[in-house]
Amino acid sequence: MTANNPAPASFRDSSRVASAPASERRRASLDSLVHRTDAEIRRSTIMVVDDEFVNVKIVRKHLKDAGYENFITTTDSREALPLIQQQHPDVLILDLMMPHVDGFQILDAIRRDGELRHLPVLFLTASDDTQTKLNALDLGATDFLRKPVDPTELVVRVRNVLRVKRHLDQLADYSTRLEKEVLARTQELDESRAEVIHALAVAGEQRDQETGNHVIRVARYCGILAHELGLDPAQADLLELTAVLHDVGKIGIPDAILLKPGALDEAEYAMMQQHCEFGMNILMGVACRTHELTKTCLGQRRLSRSPILRNAAMIAMSHHEKWDGTGYPSGLKGEAIPIEGRICAVADVFDALSTRRPYKPALPWKRCHEILEEGRGSHFDPRVLDAFFARHADIREVQLRYADPA
Fold it and tell me: Which of 65, 55, 71, 43 minimizes the C-alpha distance to 162?
């Protein structure tokens, strides 16, 4: 720009703003925000309740002169609560002494209402009695306005109360939005977690094609039995989620044993039994094999902090234990066996009996029940067995829904 061609006014103004100190720019931004806030506040809905019409008229006039536009008014205190519940005003200016229903009664009803209890209430009163004001404050009054109303005081107090309410509303809206976002994100994580768990379970089952939907059925049976036994709902849901991994240790069993069409010999059976410990190792003990830490960490286990993996490992390790202590791998007895393992034992054996395997055909329902009953008190926890029979119809529904392809 030359002296003969000065910069346009808009350019000069923007240059001054850009070169202004940071404190001035912040002050200008704050002033602009306050201006916008006050403009929004003046669109708030103000309700005035006073048994004398002239008082209502005066309050409304003063506030209208200050730029407020939306009003709800009544001189019949009996109409106050229904109007508040229907219209949801932003602030209530309430006379204290009125016939039929006084201000104390209205305020008490508002503070007891879950949807209305945060409504700001300004009391109109000609009384100077300290105890009266204390009683009102104790009930939850926001502020007081003395009659006759001073216009300046009225406008300032209403504006201040509405500013506070606006900020509280924004916080409440933000909290609601955040809660919804957290809920949606949690649901996504839960779904992803379930998919990963199912994928790991399928990895184990892919070694043994004949078992088909075995892990899904067993998990559903476990959930049904857990709820029937009165386990905490969260514990029951966790059991159903993690029971799909009860046989994940089969990944470590050689194909010659896992896929053998006939009965296993003693050595093969001993190897098959190791799938419980293999499953626990997969789920709870992860070998440290990084090159940098080979000397100090190789072979050491890092126990998972995840309750999901801990629960899954417990089921994998205990679902072949028997009530009388003759099971494997630890020979646990009675209630020393985790309840999750006892539940999974019944579900797993029933599914093995009622579906076709390489070494046997599927048995009829009646015969399955007879075999389960024969194991009462020896193989199975009697309470879990009772729960199984009590939910016969639900078990049957799951079996049909997730039946293996013919």
Answer: 43
What distance in Å separates the CA atoms of residue 285 and residue 266, rounded to the nearest whole number?
A: 28
Instruction: Of 2, 4, 406, 15, give the one whose Cα is nearest residue 212.
Output: 406
Query: What confidence category does residue 262 fall into, taking pLDDT thresholds of 50, 70 and 90?
Result: confident
- Round the average pLDDT of the chain to a whole number and report it: 80
Which ranges in 113-232 belong to alpha helices (H)? 130-139, 151-205, 214-228
Nearest 5°: phi and psi at 205? -75, -25
Selection from 51-65, 134-148, 281-295 with the highest mean pLDDT: 51-65
Please state which architecture CATH assigns to domain 23-175: 3-Layer(aba) Sandwich (3.40)
Residue 303 has pLDDT above 50, yes or no: no
Domain spans, the chain: 23-175, 206-401
Q: How far apart are CA 401 and CA 374, in angstroms?
A: 27
Structure tokens at 94: 């309430």
Find, among 66, 45, 48, the residue nearest to 124 by Cα. Answer: 48
Lowest-confidence pick of 60-69, 171-180, 300-309: 300-309
Least Cα distance to 158 among 60, 54, 287, 305 occurs for 60
**Which CATH code for domain 206-401?**
1.10.3210.10
Identify each DSSP E strand in 6-84 by its residue range. Answer: 45-49, 70-74
Strands of the sheet containing 45-49, edge to edge, are: 70-74, 45-49, 91-95, 121-125, 143-146
For 221, the token pair is 């049976």
Rounded-to-5 percentages of helix, strand, coil across the chain: 65, 10, 30
Residues 6+ apart with CB under 8 A from 355: 211, 212, 214, 362, 404
* Helix pair 151-205, 22-41: axis angle to 10 deg: 100
Q: Which two tokens stand for residue 380?
A: 């199975």
Other Cβ atoms less than 10 A from the Cβ of 254: the count is: 12
Q: What pTM does this model have?
A: 0.55
Please report, rounded to a whole number, the percentage of residues in the chain having pLDDT higher than 90: 34
Q: Is the separation of the CB atoms in 343 and 319 below 8 Å?
A: no
pLDDT of residue 249: 86
